[in-house]
Automatic annotation (TrEMBL):
<comment type="similarity">
    <text>Belongs to the MIP/aquaporin (TC 1.A.8) family.</text>
</comment>
<dbReference type="GO" id="GO:0015267">
    <property type="term" value="F:channel activity"/>
</dbReference>
<dbReference type="InterPro" id="IPR023271">
    <property type="entry name" value="Aquaporin-like"/>
</dbReference>
<keyword id="KW-1133">Transmembrane helix</keyword>
<feature type="transmembrane region" description="Helical">
    <location>
        <begin position="209"/>
        <end position="229"/>
    </location>
</feature>
<dbReference type="InterPro" id="IPR022357">
    <property type="entry name" value="MIP_CS"/>
</dbReference>
<keyword id="KW-0812">Transmembrane</keyword>
<protein>
    <recommendedName>
        <fullName>Aquaporin</fullName>
    </recommendedName>
</protein>
<dbReference type="InterPro" id="IPR000425">
    <property type="entry name" value="MIP"/>
</dbReference>
<dbReference type="Pfam" id="PF00230">
    <property type="entry name" value="MIP"/>
</dbReference>
<feature type="transmembrane region" description="Helical">
    <location>
        <begin position="24"/>
        <end position="46"/>
    </location>
</feature>
<feature type="transmembrane region" description="Helical">
    <location>
        <begin position="134"/>
        <end position="155"/>
    </location>
</feature>
<feature type="transmembrane region" description="Helical">
    <location>
        <begin position="52"/>
        <end position="85"/>
    </location>
</feature>
<dbReference type="InterPro" id="IPR034294">
    <property type="entry name" value="Aquaporin_transptr"/>
</dbReference>
<keyword id="KW-0677">Repeat</keyword>
<keyword id="KW-0813">Transport</keyword>
<keyword id="KW-0472">Membrane</keyword>
Length: 238
């Protein structure tokens, strides 16, 4: 009897691990294609081209793998869920590792595709504008990422019954809006993994810490605000 219980427990554990591996792979693939599409748009692209490339890339990936992992593909979003207890610490850590690996892989493929034609060109490395100090850059990254994570939290609220449109499109448009206003200022990272991938491939770390501090603060603040102020309640549970 005890052996049967143990076997049953083991099977359930294997099923859970299989699902976790699917989620981790989805985070890797999603972040890979975000960097692949986004960094190509940065080469000689206008602000509008960059904004729509990143926004539509996220919307596409959310449609493709959102049902598997939630398509965070961004450590700031993962932290927004982690800080309010909607994802475990261990799973959140694994998500962030896979996001960073996917970002490096995506940036690496772009770099290898263009290695003979770059000639010193900036392959989408984010850095503050010359007229901004570090504090201003952190503030801008905090605010634009706050908007992104707030939208993600809102469209993923399982208690909402009013969402009629496309949740992936809403998230993608929030990224497009952030890029349209902030690309000339900070490069509009909104995603530590996105900046990390480009920095690793080009070995460019100037002010890189800005793109971990700002977006992660924005993600945490948005997660807390939505959880404690805006999260919908099930009327039947009141």
């Amino acid at each position: 009897m005890c052996e049967m219980k143990f076997i049953s427990f083991l099977i359930e554990d294997l099923k859970e691990n299989k699902q976790l591996w699917k989620e981790l792979l989805a985070e890797f693939v999603g972040t890979f294609f975000l960097l692949f599409v986004g960094l190509f748009s940065c080469l000689g692209g206008s602000v509008e081209r960059i904004a729509f490339a990143f926004g539509l890339a996220v919307a596409s990936m959310a449609q493709a793998v959102g049902h598997i992992s939630g398509c965070h593909i961004n450590p700031a979003i993962t932290l927004g869920f982690l800080v309010v207890g909607e994802i475990s610490i261990l799973k959140g850590l694994f998500f962030i590792i896979m996001q960073c690996l996917g970002a490096v892989a995506g940036a690496g493929v772009v770099y290898l595709s263009l290695i003979d034609t770059l000639m010193g060109a900036n392959l989408g490395v984010t850095s503050p504008a010359a007229n901004l100090n570090a504090g201003q850059a952190v503030l801008i990254e905090t605010l634009i990422t706050f908007v992104l994570v707030l939208v993600v939290k809102a469209v993923s609220d399982v208690e909402r019954i009013d969402i009629k449109g496309s949740a992936p499109l809403a998230v993608g448009l929030s990224i497009t809006a952030g890029h349209l206003c902030a690309v000339p200022l900070t490069g509009a990272s909104m995603n530590p993994a996105r900046s990390f991938g480009a920095a690793v491939v080009q070995n460019s770390w100037d002010s890189h810490w800005v793109y971990w501090i700002g977006p992660n603060i924005g993600g945490i603040l948005a997660g807390l605000l939505y959880r404690f102020c805006f999260k919908q309640s099930n009327p039947e549970s009141i």
